[in-house]
Design goal:
- This protein is an alpha+beta fold.
- The protein has a single domain, classed as START domain (Alpha-D-Glucose-1,6-Bisphosphate, Chain A, domain 4), CATH 3.30.530.20.
- It has five helices and seven strands, in the order αβααββββββαα.
- It has a seven-stranded antiparallel β-sheet, with helices on one face.
């Protein structure tokens, strides 16, 4: 009986490990919101890391978080590094591409609690009513450990709710 249970457990574990290996090699999480403000009013919230405290869902998770800003105050080359508690971890961002009132690309390097190297993308599309459709996406490679974790919890469900909260904060700030 014990031998049969052990064999079943080994087969289940092997099945999960093999299934994880078949998962996609990349991930993408994306959320959008319609904001009643022109792109010119919204874009500076992304392009200037000093303004992230207004809308970022992670900024308030650790009041003692250490922040370091570098490069130009905004736009291409601006950097932002953080180190905080277990809820925010540690990492660094650098603006790679800045097209005012339209698109921003950020190199996003997580260092703690897990290492990860991704891209964050913010796009703003003017709407006919004078508002703006804002899309926040993050994408990158999915190493095997991410694939294995993804068998039990999807990246979309882990991060998507934070994107929704951040976009709600941005909407509230930009529509004032």
């Amino acid at each position: 009986m014990f031998k049969t249970i052990a064999i079943v457990i080994v087969v289940l574990i092997a099945g999960v490990l093999v299934f994880a290996a078949t998962r996609p090699d990349a991930f993408r999480v994306e959320r959008s919101v319609s904001i009643k403000a022109p792109p010119e009013k919204i874009y500076p919230y992304f392009d200037d890391f000093n303004r992230w405290a207004v809308w970022s869902p992670w900024e308030k998770l650790d009041p003692a978080m250490k922040r370091t800003f570098g490069g130009p105050p905004s736009g291409k080359g601006a950097t932002y590094a953080w180190e905080g508690n277990s809820k925010v971890g540690a990492g660094r961002m650098e603006i790679l591409e800045s097209t005012p009132s339209n698109k921003l690309l950020i190199k996003l390097d997580f260092l703690k609690p897990f290492e990860g190297h991704n891209t964050a993308e913010y796009t703003l599309v003017p709407a006919a009513d004078g508002g703006t459709q804002v899309t926040w996406a993050m994408y990158g490679p999915a190493p095997y450990i991410s694939k294995l974790m993804g068998v039990f919890v999807s990246m979309d469900s882990m991060i998507g709710k934070d994107f929704e909260a951040g976009l709600a904060n941005l909407k509230a700030a930009a529509e004032k």
